[in-house]
Amino acid sequence: MRINATNKAKTENKKNRYRGIVLRQLSREILSEFYARKFTFEPLFTVITPRMFANREFGFLIENNGEDKFTRNLSFKTPSELKKYMITNGVKAAYIGAIYQPPPSPGRSITKLKWLGRELVFDIDLTDYDDVRTCGKGKDHVCPKCWPFVVDAALMIEEILRDDFGLSKITWVFSGRRGYHAWVSDEIAKYFDEETREAIATYISPDNPEELVPISYQKKIIRLLLRKDLTMLVKQNKKLFKKTWRELLKRLPRIDKKVTMDTVRLLRVPGSVHPATGKIAIIVKDPQTFYPDDAPTIWEALGID
């Protein structure tokens, strides 16, 4: 992925400008206007099926009298009821979870409900690379120099899911801030238990990557991240080989395994607004060419300067 110096400067200017706008203008009124005028269910129904929509759990961050309150254990009979709720409350953040029977309702813990399934999801966040990125650290830093960590992770994850696990319905969603969410919507994946999800997450993102990993995984590392054949790499002298291999290991997928394992975890609703940036969590058609600046902000969507 190439990002020239001019684009980098624009990125920094936009990042600083958006920080100011978030602090001044991410009001309940603007959020309500966005969900009334611009929000659609197409992104959401790209990653979930409308079937059993009424049994889905939703959660929201809502500002009330200057204080943010998080609420979950909510369900809606129809998408229009959900949209009405989001408009009426001007929600700062919207999240979706698993399917339950009976449908979730306030005052009744989801632990008392029958769990019926949830898509397999993966969360890539640049902060998980803070120990290896040298351009900056922390939740507010995203730049063209470190974004390729996310791009490389997405490339590895997609190929592993397809080739090693036979999964094919994979959708990438911009998190709204500094990473991707991968939604795996294959029917079989919805019913994976926590143990299965943990095994897949650990295979994709090894706890100790310097230890022996399957040869098939090693070949993917070389082919996808170095774009060379494994036999070509081993022909290097021992010192150079070790240096190259250590650098490659820094670029392996680093996912939040709790997000993948937790069958009751909520994840940001595709198409909704991220409250920290004002950016919209859009569907990403090509995670290899996407950059966070490609995602519109709520103010751009509404035509507000």
What does this structure look like?
The protein has 305 residues and is α+β, with helices and mostly antiparallel strands. The protein has a domain of 198 residues: DNA primase, PRIM domain, CATH 3.90.920. 37% of the residues lie in helices and 17% in strands. The chain is built from 11 helices and 9 strands. Strands 1, 2, 3, 4 and 8 form a 5-stranded antiparallel sheet that branches. Strands 5-7-6-9 form a 4-stranded antiparallel sheet. A hairpin with a 4-residue loop joins strand 6 and strand 7. The longest helix is centred in the N-terminal third of the chain and has 21 residues. The chain is globular and about 65 Å long.
Any key phrases for this structure?
disordered N terminus, 305 residues, DNA primase, PRIM domain, alpha+beta
Offer a concise description of the structure:
The chain has 305 residues and is an alpha+beta fold. It contains eleven helices and nine strands.
Helices, strands, pairings?
Blueprint: H1 5-25, H2 28-37, H3 44-47, E1 56-64, E2 67-74, H4 79-89, E3 93-101, E4 114-117, E5 120-125, H5 147-163, E6 170-174, E7 179-184, H6 194-204, H7 215-226, H8 230-234, H9 238-249, H10 257-261, E8 267-268, E9 283-284, H11 298-302
Antiparallel strand pairs: 1-2, 1-3, 3-4, 3-8, 5-7, 6-7, 6-9
Helix pairs in contact: 2-4, 5-7
